[in-house]
Design a protein that fits this description.
single chain, mainly alpha, Helix Hairpins, 101 residues, 3 helices, 77% helix, elongated
Length: 101
C-alpha cells in the first residue's frame, strides 16, 4: 500500500510553514538556524518525492547537495552564535544591531 502523493506535499508544506514561522518570530540565533534547517528539509522532502515520482535520481542527488549546504551553514552559524555570545552575553539576534556603524 503506497502513501498518497498529497501526504508528501502536505508534510513538506507543514515543515516549510513551521520554518518560516520560526524565522519570523524567534530572536534566538540558534532557533533561527534550526528554522532555516526545517525549510531546507522541506525542500529535500519535495526533491526526494518528485525524484521517486518521475523515476530518476536527479532530485535525490540535488537533495544530497542541499544536505551538504546545510552542514556548511551549521558550521558558519555556530561560529556566528559563538561571536554573538562572546560579545553580547547572549544569542539574541536583535542585540547585534548595535554593531552597526
Amino acid at each position: 500500500m503506497a502513501v498518497p502523493p498529497s501526504y508528501y506535499l502536505l508534510l513538506s508544506a507543514a515543515l516549510f510553514c513551521i520554518g518560516v514561522a520560526g524565522v519570523l518570530t524567534r530572536r534566538n540565533a540558534l532557533l533561527f538556524l534550526m528554522s532555516i534547517e526545517l525549510m531546507l528539509n522541506a525542500a529535500n522532502v519535495n526533491f526526494v518525492y518528485f525524484s521517486q515520482f518521475w523515476g530518476n535520481v536527479t532530485g535525490q542527488t540535488f537533495s544530497l547537495f542541499v544536505i551538504a549546504l546545510a552542514a556548511a551553514e551549521v558550521a558558519i552559524g555556530i561560529g556566528i552564535i559563538l561571536v554573538l555570545y562572546r560579545n553580547f552575553d547572549g544569542v539574541d539576534v536583535t542585540e547585534a544591531t548595535t554593531m552597526r556603524w
